Amino acid sequence: MAYPDSEVAFRVCIPASDLPDSGGEPENDFEAITSTIVETASILPNTMMGMSEEGHRTVVISMHDAQCWSHIAERVRQLTFEYERLLQRRELAEKQSSTFDWDDYQDYD
Fold first, then answer.
1. Which of 36, 52, 61, 66 could form a disulfide with 56 if both were Cys (CB 3.0 to 4.6 A apart)?
2. Torsion angle (degrees, nearest 10) of CA 99, 103, 106, 109
3. What's the average model confidence in pLDDT over 57-75?
4. Which domain holds residue 34?
5. In a domain, 105, yes or no
6. Residues 6+ apart with CB under 8 A from 91
């Protein structure tokens, strides 16, 4: 997708396979994590969210106002940090569940 030279474009592109399973928890849901960015940019033209050809979930924001860009860039940094923490918690949970041995906790009658 081409952008005019007068616009600043920002793209958040995360592989769909890396997204945590929401499990009914909104903070683990990609749409919930990125909705603030999209809502913040909703007054601007050319804001969209969808699936890229490479199978990535993508948020694209283009804007003309440098001050607005600064605000959204800061919010993206915060959301990226939150997303990375979610991935770390998921990896830890997977490690813990894979090392748990039910045979060690059987009732011996």
1. 52
2. -170
3. 55
4. 8-97
5. no
6. none
